Amino acid sequence: MGLTIHYKGELKNASDLKSIIDAVKDVAKSEKWDYFVFEEQFENNSFSETIDKENLFGIMISPPKCDPLCISFLSNGRMCGIINFNLLQKEGIINDDLIYTVFSKTQYSGYENHKKLILLLDYISKKYLENFECHDDGLYWETRDEKLLKETFKKYTNLMDSFSSSIEMIPMNEDENIEDYLIRMAETTNKKIIDEEELPKLSIEEENEFKRMKLSLEHDALFPENIKSNLPPEIEGQFLDYVMNFEEQYKNVKRITVYEKIGQPDFKLQNKLNDEEIEIELEKIETIMKNHNIALGLICDYDNKTRLIYTFITEELFNHEIDDINIPGMITHFTYEEFHPNNEYDIENACIDFIKMFLNKKNDFYEEFHSKEATNHEALNNFRSLFKKFKIKYYKFGEILINDDKAKATFNIDFWGKINGSVNKIYYSGNGEMTFKHEYGYWYVQNVNLPIMD
Length: 454
What we know:
alpha+beta; four-stranded antiparallel β-sheet
């Protein structure tokens, strides 16, 4: 229900996964969208014929008032969204339409965000995917007609408003359940009395349609439109029951601590343990967490990591509150850096990522998403437009100076560029620097100085 993007495809190379994640993450940061990273590398950096039902690989982003858009894959390299993956874990079934068709409803997010998501899918699919297909209810994927996209959004909005008006004209009674409400709506709308005893018995397909309607009305659930499924209706009914179970739990969910979630096990304080003992205790705690579908990951390496993580789990994570939801196959995953951001790591990666995008003339990713990021972007863009190709020969990160919400990073770089209409190379070498500002939990580029002056 509502304007939606449907898509599917396959990853060309397993080794490209980290590049995709970094590219999508950059877009999310630039747009100030939330994002979540699943697994970042396939086992042995290759696809597997046997599907790993424990891990999803890739990233999902969440623009405001929009379904998460998943750029994620099963271990066989085929695209699979988080909802699809949860179904796979529960039912263990492989059905192309159900498992490999991903969707994101953009109805309430607006045509601008819809357009940006389409452009992102276009970039990702051309660079990293094969056998990619996209069906866009907004028709922007097929036409790139922004005027048509706006008109389509307006049409869908009018339809939704019309439906909402009908709901307002026939409100649900206080003690009325959803089944009785739908029947009464039908009675009023069709101007005839329906005797419940004379209602025909519903087929499995009709029951599934009713479940979808109930989920949409009661929980604002979203389902793919205009996609025919070969999934047996009995299995689809079980999936809808699974979704209903989740929604019902979430509606009445209570907040508990992680420590309560894992059964309040006995544990020892870190300052009472030597290095050998703390390794044993950490393994015990991680096993208990895993048995209760709680996982913790780290992005960076740290000194004395075992003690650091044990201390973090027992003194911080245990006190962190989460929703008390118990769904088979659902894992609550935490990342240490979400609680303790590693500014040096983030800034160092932001530097090299920006430089690589700036010097990459093979695609328009920089122009689409980062050409106005730096305050001196006009001078940078004028320089970049003179060349048809760049190549980095050497890069070494220097040092970082952080002062509250501002930072400066230095680096040394050696690269060349080929001027448009020429085969000659111009070499640039020397020191550079970038300044950053910390906003909304991220470090954003403010000014970029490259050794490009004679």
